[in-house]
Protein: glycerophosphodiester phosphodiesterase
Amino acid sequence: MIRVFLLIFLFIHSSLAQKATAPPTKKWMTLSGEQPLVIARGGFSGLFPESSSFANQMTESVSLNGVVMLCNLQLTSDGVGICLSDIRLDNSTTISSLFPKGAKSYTINGVNLRGWFSLDFTSDVLLNNVSLVQNIYSRPTLFDGQFPISTVEDVTGLKPAHFWLNVQYDSFYNQQKLSPAAYVEDALTRMSIGFLSSPEIGFLKSMNGKVNKQKTKLIFQFLGLDEVEPTSKQKYGSILNNLANIKTFASGILVPKDYIWTVNANGYLGAPTTLVSDAHKQGLEVYASGFANDMPLSYNYSYDPSNEYIQFIDNSQFAVDGVLTDFPPTASEAIGNPLVISNNGASGIYPGCTDLAYQQAVDDGADIIDCSVQMTKDGVAFCLASADLAADTTAMMPFIDRKALIPEIQQEMGVFSFALTWSELQTVKPQIANPFGNTAMVRNPAAKNMGKFMTLSDFLEYAKAKAVSGILINIENAAYLASKEGLDIVGAVTTALSNATFDKQSTQQVLIQSDDTSVLSKFKNVPTYKRVLLIKEKIGDASKQSVQEIKKYADGVTITRGAILEIADFFIVSQTNVVKELQAANLTVYVKQLRNEYVTLAFDYFSDPIVEIATYAKSIQVDGFMTDYPGTATKYFRSPCSNLEKKGTVPYAILPAEPGSLLGLAGPEAQPPAAPPAAALEVADVVDPPLPPVADKAADKAPTASPTKSPSSGWANAANLGFSTFAAIVVYGFALC
Structure:
């Protein structure tokens, strides 16, 4: 019956939530720069008995793609490998009740142990008679006695993305005429073992010439600092002082988490050790063990286990290469959320790109803060949403005599930043832009003109001081500025980044975004920068050739909401394949731009911006989104109601919208007419001509225009106020969380 319930649970889970996928955008401080691995000790052993079939199956269902399944190897008397952490079986199986006289005593690594040992029983006896039980008494006993012991072949038969075999007791088994090395050699011919670890140096050295190091990583496991390693007879604490020697026989180390972050007698974190940095300098990966949600944590984590993972993988100093855990969903949750990227700071609350907008974005927990770079007449680079000052400043009236039409930039008249000097710009005030035109829906009137403009240099220093996860620098109109205004915006950005040493560090991510591939090419020589192509046009598809062309210039792509979801009469009709096509080519995908105002939301979101965020994060699985209200996005990710794994245990689960489901409730006669499909992205839409040289422009020369394609227009919606009553149900549900 339990098996039936689990199958039903898995079906419901797969129906309500897509598998979590970690955002590949982030430049992690791991040795490889890739995201840390989630390593499941015996599968989901925090819920089910270790290495049981359910523990292993559930791990695949509720964890990040690429989760590693770890098996602690024990051997039976006939040399069959089984998966259990403790060499004594009585704490994790029913063996003591079945064979009450089967206990024996052995000296293992100098310690006398009494219990029931796998090497005293044949595989036939163990696999056909003995069942697993939960070996930590605070965990559920509901599944005790339901599952047989799993062999190594049982686990690898599930075809996990990665398999880790840990050989704990090589010396002891050899004393009993059983050879773990021989078992592993044979296993390597029959299965894929991505990681092979042991706390015994002799075993790892013996395997050095027997494994394909391109396929199998050898990992040295550290035990307690005062415990003695069997081969060298040294304490592990002493071995730790010679990481260079470890590198001669292993590619990484597995250490208890307190090797990295110590906890003092009062239950608070001390300073981190330098182990991770020291090991990375030697080319050694570092994996941390001992993570479990139901074990005492430092008070610094406020009883939130995800905070502990973040402390190890996303602090400003280092990131371990993987975490070994009994609760893989929590580790996945800590690693796998999309990036929250501000759009001109928290521009829905304060005037965009001002000091107050950036401070609000930081306070709201944005991962990335952004600066769209503009240039003044005298060459000062600063942050503002648009080169046209009309929407974001009060410059229109005092400088109306400098109003101009520049088709290369936009189709409307404007007062442009490069028509004013920096000192002239200081005479005007910032203002909150109104994306909705002349309507009654305005943003935060009390703060309409608050804040100060920030130069690019000031922005970079601010980002460093606040230790945000990263920055996004957006560059547009480079060709026009160079050829017609004599302004080198690319050079200005390059110099500012270098002066702020962003080109010499990897602690904070640097995203360089532009709609011009020639601009992106200028930054290809700084490997720590990630280049992002901005596609403003609404597209319905992306040809394979165009995607491959993008990869020549960029690591990621920013697209509009209209390129992802087809909307008619404010109902979601369907989802395009654009995100899947881009991600399949290993391009990260960001969506812009999200807003809270209900007039920007399809009815399917119930006038609730949280539901839109859930749709992009959980269903569509974008790698990040740019929002005027980063606080709304971070509120969603902090809410337990965002975790679909916990549905049924929270008052309300925030489910993503399903394209077409709401529209499908209406009769055929009420369906909106089918819209023509948006054009597919082709190679010609991707590649831009080389940037022109920077002109030596006379100070009094007026700007001139040349034909060019116009920027795509923003998405404008109208509101259906009657529908907001239904949205209140969702708002109430979220408030309960």
